[in-house]
């Protein structure tokens, strides 16, 4: 039986469907951004890419947890 995805990654299928880009692309954008604070990055995704708050928050949380340098 498949394990249920929890946490920020649980949003990923909906994000890919709604915004038409793979999660890897979004994570790369977050990692390459000169912004460093979580909420700055969330606001940037919302204002520059039209992303909803929950989706932006999930992407930023996941990308920052993995480390920006990857």
UniProtKB/TrEMBL annotation:
It comes from Streptomyces carpaticus. This is DUF4287 domain-containing protein.
